[in-house]
Amino acid sequence: MGPARFVAGAPEEVRARLGLDGRVPRACTLGRLPARIPADREPGRTPGLRWFHATAIPPPPSAPHCCVASRDMADTDVSSPFDEHFRFPADLMEARRGAGGRVAVIGGGISGLACAYELVGRGLEVTVYERAGRPGGRIRTHRFWDGTHGELGAMRLPANHHTTLHYVRQFGLPTRKFVNANPDAYLHLRGQRVRARDAHTLSDRYGLTRPENRDPRQLLEELLHHVWYRLRPEQHKAVLAGEVDDPEIEALMSTSLWQYASTRLTPQAWDLAGQVSGLAHYEHASLLEVLVDYFGLFHVEQLELTDGMDALVSAFVRALPPQTIRLSAHIERIHTDGDGVRVLGRGLGGRLDERYDWAVCALPAPALDQIRFEPGLPPAQRQAVRGIHYASSSKTLVHVNRRVWELSDGIHGGGSFTDLPIQQCWYPSDNARPSGESWVAAEPVRSHEPAVLTGAYLWEGNARRFSTLPEEDRTGLVLESLEQLHPGISDTVDDIVHWNWDEQPGIGGGAFAYLAPGQHARYLTELGAPHPAERPRIFFAGEQLSVAHAWIQGALESALVAVRGVLEQAGARAAAR
Questions:
Q1: Is residue 560 situated within a structural domain?
Q2: Nearest in space to 368 (alpha carbons), one of 384, 348, 352
Q3: Which terminus of the chain, N or C, has fewer Cβ atoms within 10 Å?
Q4: 198 in the Ramachandran plot: left (φ > 0), alpha (ψ -120 to 50) or beta?
Q5: Has residue 345 been placed in a domain?
Q6: Tens digit of pLDDT for each residue in 360-377?
Q7: What is the bridge-based pairing of β-strands 125-129 and 325-326?
Q8: CATH, residue 336
Q9: Residue 229 falls within a domain, yes or no?
Q10: Residue 532, preceding bond cis, omega within 30 degrees?
C-alpha cells in the first residue's frame, strides 16, 4: 500500500496521534587552480556515512561540547532506547575459542573486517576477499602531500555509538571532538549570507509570517518532536529492534518526510527548515528513517578519530593474522551444498575456487546483487537486494595553505549550509576549542597553517547532477561557491579532490541505504535472512541491515549478528559430531 493511501486510510485515532489529520499550514506547538588536479593524487573512499549526517540543529543546552570515548560513556548509564540498542553485545564481550571451521568473508569494508576479527578470535580460520585494492570500503581517508587529511566517506562518530566506540577503545585510537553545529558558521540562502545564530533573519526572504517567522531550526525540532514523542517508549524500542507490526509505526514507515511536513508547515517554511538542516534533500525518504537519525544520532555529541577515520580500518587489519585479506579479489559466484560453500571468482593470480564451511557476504546491496548464488536467493530476498533505496553522496576536499575561515570569519569547526552548488561545506575540527556557546581557536598559530576543507558535500539529486559535470566544471563551481562564503579563499587553494560514491566499482549504486516509504516492512526482514533457510551456510552483513543506516555503527552491528549466526552453526555442527 502506497504511503498516501495508507495515511488516508489509517484509523482515525492513529492519524490523530501522529498528527496526520489534515493539512495544517502552521508550525507545531510543542577558482584559481590548474585545469586538472594531478592524476597521481588518488582520492580515498567512504560514505558519508551519511545522508542526514549534517543536521545544523545544535545539541540540547545541557549537553557538553564534546564527549570522549570513555568506558562509562560506552558501556554504562544507559539512558535511552538508543543507548541500549547501540551497546556492544554483552555475550560477545569475551572471545571464547569454540568450535572450529573455515569462513569466507566477502567484502573488506568495516563490517567484513569486524566479522573476521571476531571469528578469528574464537578460533575459526577466516579469509577476507575484497574487490578493491584496499580494505575499508566506505571509510576512506584521503591524505595530502603534507600529511593533512580529509574524509571522503564516514567523518564522525556519535557519542552513543557504543559498538563503534568499543573497538575505538579496544584498539587505543585517539579521538577528539567533532564540531557538529557552530553558531558562527554561515547559512547562504536565496542570495543572503548570515551566521547560523541569525537563521531567524532569513524568514523575510521566504515570506514567512507568524507563527513561522522564527528560527527555522526550532520549526524543524518541533515538527519532528511532535510525531516521535507521540510514540510510547516501548514503541521506540520496537522501531530499533525492527519490530514494525504496529499501526502507528507503519504510518511513519509508509509516509515520506515531505508528506508529513506538508501537513504542519507551509511549503515556504519547510523549504527554509529543510535547507538549513539539509533534510530538504531527503524529503522523499521514509519519515521513520529521518526520525531515527534525528533523535538517535544528532541529539548527541560527535567525535572523530584524530588520525583519520581509516585508523579504525588499519587497526582491524593489524589485528588479523597475515594474509587473511586478499585484495583485488572479485567474487562472482557462491555455490552451497551439504558440506559447505564454494567461493568462485578471479584474483590477481588468476581464477579463485575455494571451499569453506560458511560464508559471510559483508557487502552493500548493489555489490551483493552482482554475485550469483547457487541455489539462488529466494525471490523476496533477491527483490529486497535490488529494491532497497540507496542515497547518493559526493564530496570535494579542498586543500588550502591557510585557514581563511578561521582568520577572517572566526569559524572553528562545524558546517555552513547553502543553496549553492556545493550544498554544504564542513570545516576541520582540529583547531576548535569550546568557549561558551561558540568555538574559538585552540591554537591561534594553527589558523595560519595548511588544512583540508570539505568544500562540497552533496546528497541525492544534487550529488548525481554534480557528478555528471566535467572535473574542470566541478572545480570551478566549488571555488565560485566558496568565494561567496569566504571571499579570497581561492588564493589559498592548491589542491582539490572530487569523489562520488555512485561511481565506485563494486560499491556503485549509492553511498548508503536510506529507505523510501514502505521499504522497512517490505524489505528489511528478507534482506539479511541467512541462506539457505533450512540449513544456513551464508550470512549477510552491512549497514543496510541495521537501523543505523549509513553509519559505521550500523555496519558493525550487522557484523556481530552474522558472527552469532556462524558461531551457532559451528556449535551445532560440533555438538552433532
A1: yes
A2: 384
A3: C
A4: alpha
A5: yes
A6: 999 999 999 999 999 999
A7: parallel
A8: 3.50.50.60
A9: no
A10: yes
The span from the CA of 274 to the CA of 19, in Å, is 19
Structural domain contains residue 161: yes
State the residue for C-alpha cell 579469509: 127
> Which amino acid makes up residue 263?
T
Report the number of distinct structural domains present in the chain.
Answer: 1
CA dist 303 and 175 (Å) reads: 6
All three cell numbers of 306, joined, read: 584524530
User: Residues 432-459: pLDDT tens digits?
Assistant: 999 999 999 999 999 999 999 999 999 9
Contact call for residues 176 and 549 (beta carbons, < 8 A): no
At 45, list the grid cell.
573512499
User: CA–CA separation, 307 vs 304, rounded Å?
Assistant: 9
- Cβ pair 431, 407 in contact under 8 A: no
Say how far residue 547 (Cα) sits from the centre of its chain. 11
| Cβ neighbours of 313 (radius 10 Å) | 22
Instruction: Please report where in the chains the cell 546528497 appears, as a residue.
Output: 459
Task: Tell me whether strands 512-513 and 350-356 are parallel, antiparallel or unpaired.
Answer: unpaired
Which residues form the domain of 118? 66-174+305-388+516-576
Rounded distance between C-alpha atoms, residue 234 and residue 243, angstroms: 11
Element (H, E) at 268: helix 267-277
